[in-house]
Amino acid sequence: MRFIRFIPALLLSAMTAYAHTLYLGNYADSIHAVDFDSANGRLGPDRVVAPIAHASFLERSADGRFLYAVAEGKPGVLAAFATGAGGALTQLNTRSSEGTGPCDIALSPDGRLIAVANYGGGSVIVHRVAADGSLDEKVAFFQHTHAAGAHPDRQKTPHAHGVTWSPDGRLLLVPDLGGDRVYSYARSADDSLAPNPGQPWLTLAPGAGPRHAQFSPDGRHVYVINELDNTVAVVAYDPAGAALSLIETVSTLPAGGFAGFTKTAEIAVRADGRFVYASNRGHDSLALFARDPASGRLTPRGHVAVPANPRHFAMSPDSRWLLSAGQDADAVRIYAVDTESGGLTPVGPDFATPKPVCINF
């Protein structure tokens, strides 16, 4: 009888497990593809699929048919690819990012527009996406001019560092590390963009250095990771007025502090909205926070060690696994995610891959 009862469990496991090809952006000389097995969280094999140098951050279309990448340079490059069997990539076309050091990329929720932030140039550019997945005409370009100056080295000029669309696709948020601002651009019905007339930007604390932002699944809050002061800003979002308001700011470091040099990198909200994760580079950890769905406020729940320089991490589509890219460790580490506590447990050996800086499911 015990054996008979065990059979449905095996069948359920087989039905819920899935195989998925994910892509790795890096500071090496090509984009890599890797197979991911959700049954055990294992990766492999690692293979080159596009010989494009310093193709760091990646974005995939919702249907998985297309992949977009930014390649850092002077000027930077935005590249479009069609995906194929085994993760193969066929380049469709490229466009200039019209700025130096493009560092983030995001498709609008409807897949019609793609935005890129230029760190070195302190600008953001938006292109239309054609029906065949290629990059079409430019629909917007915004040059930031404000520099906060609170940090003596990193805030002498503007540094657009992230691009995040609101869930309804009405706003494009652009955290600017050099300006201590999160810029807000409103999208019109014809897909044109302009500074949000009601609130063109949200100002954060002097020297914060906003880097990336992510909305909660319910769309009520935005979580902005601040690179320079190692904090997360919790921001309320009012879709009716397209307005942002700061609720609180919490540290990503242990309560006792950290004596060495460290800075943050990535922020993620779990799909059920109960937990938020943030990465520290230097402290080399992921900070875990419990999220109150009503208020959006965060409660620290500890840290887990990750491979050196975790510039990026990503959760699997089912939220059962978290993968952290250690740029300086040439490795990706896989963690099992506890459903109830949000805790992370490393599984298996680290996966070797050159200078990973982005994991795209």
Structural class: mainly beta
Q: Report the strand count.
A: 30
How far the N terminus sits from the C terminus, by CA atoms, comes to 40 Å
- Form type: globular
Summarize the biggest pleated sheet: 5 strands, antiparallel
Radius of gyration: 20 Å
Count every helix, treating DSSP H or I runs of 4 or more residues as helices. 1
Report on this model:
With 361 residues, this protein is mainly β. Helices cover 4% and strands 52% of the residues. The chain is built from one helix and 30 strands. The chain has one helix spanning 2-16, and strands at residues 19-26, 31-37, 42-50, 55-60, 66-71, 77-83, 89-96, 102-107, 113-118, 123-129, 135-143, 164-165, 171-176, 181-187, 193-195, 201-203, 210-215, 221-226, 231-238, 243-251, 263-269, 275-281, 285-291, 298-305, 310-315, 321-326, 331-337, 344-346, 351-352, 356-360. The strands form seven sheets. Strands 12, 13, 14, 15 and 16 form a five-stranded antiparallel beta sheet that branches. Strands 25, 26, 27, 28 and 29 form a five-stranded antiparallel beta sheet that branches. The chain is globular and about 50 Å long. It starts with a helix and ends with a strand. Mean pLDDT is 94; it is low at 1-15.
